[in-house]
Amino acid sequence: MSTHMSAWDMPVARWAAWIGEGELDLGFIEPLLRRRLSPLARAALHVANVCAYDCPSANFVFASRHGELKRTVELLRNLSQDEEMSPTLFSLSVLNSAAGIFSIARKDHAPATAIAAGIESFGYGLFEAHLRAKYDLERPVVYVYADAPAPEPLGRQPCDPDALFALGLLIDQGATTRLRTEVSLGYAGEAVSTLQANACLQALERGVGSWSSGPRQWQWKLQ
């Protein structure tokens, strides 16, 4: 039984999702840099641009559980073999690389934040985006969550996506659609092993979605 519940509403002007593989529209990024992007960064930047293409300036919040973990594993392998690390590979391995690339490509100096919070990275990133929208009414907020299954030697982890996954939302005070988030603390239900962001995507597509870590239950409702 839940003992406490927190809830907040956000105005969502549009959203975009990408699951799996395929060609993505990244024409807004300079070709040389575009060739260096990982599939994760490509998916994140694609949904971000779909959400913010007509916004001159927008706060940007990026969240990911694993981030560029595949690049990090590659760097560690280079170190274990006494090989030199590539400065380019290192610069694109950090969690905020997608946020930085998006800002540079748009020539937008608005604040950008990158968040990782384990299996609940999507929910806490969304909360950060909500706070940004609440305290900066002059600019919309682009929120992007992107992740992929953890690479070898780690292997797939509980609550990993089945494939490359990216979800973006444009939070704008002028939007008439509201996305409500409810978090029940002290929830004693069974934890699920699915990706948390899938529950929000289900709400965007069907009206409601829920996800539980055991101690906490998250629910999203489209209003």
Summarize the structure in words.
This protein has 223 residues and is α+β, with helices and mostly antiparallel strands. Helix content is 32%, strand content 26%. It has helices at residues 31-34, 39-52, 69-80, 87-91, 97-106, 121-135, 196-206; strands spanning 4-19, 59-63, 112-115, 141-147, 165-171, 178-185, 208-212, 216-222. An eight-stranded mixed beta sheet has the order 3-2-4-5-1-6-8-7, with helices on both faces. It is globular and about 55 Å long.
Round the mean pLDDT to the nearest integer and report it. 92
Radius of gyration from CA coordinates: 18 Å
Shape: globular
- The overall strand count is 8
Straight-line N-to-C gap: 25 Å
Q: Name the structural class.
A: alpha+beta
Please count the helical segments: 7
As residue ranges, the low-confidence spans are: none
* Helix and strand element order: EHHEHHHEHEEEHEE
Helix content: 25-40%
Quick synopsis:
The protein has 7 helices and 8 strands. The protein has 223 residues and is an alpha+beta fold. The mean pLDDT is 92.
Lay out the secondary structure.
Blueprint: E1 4-19, H1 31-34, H2 39-52, E2 59-63, H3 69-80, H4 87-91, H5 97-106, E3 112-115, H6 121-135, E4 141-147, E5 165-171, E6 178-185, H7 196-206, E7 208-212, E8 216-222
Parallel strand pairs: 2-3, 2-4
Antiparallel strand pairs: 1-5, 1-6, 4-5, 6-8, 7-8
Helix pairs in contact: 2-5
Features:
single chain; 223 residues; alpha+beta; eight-stranded mixed β-sheet; 7 helices; 26% strand
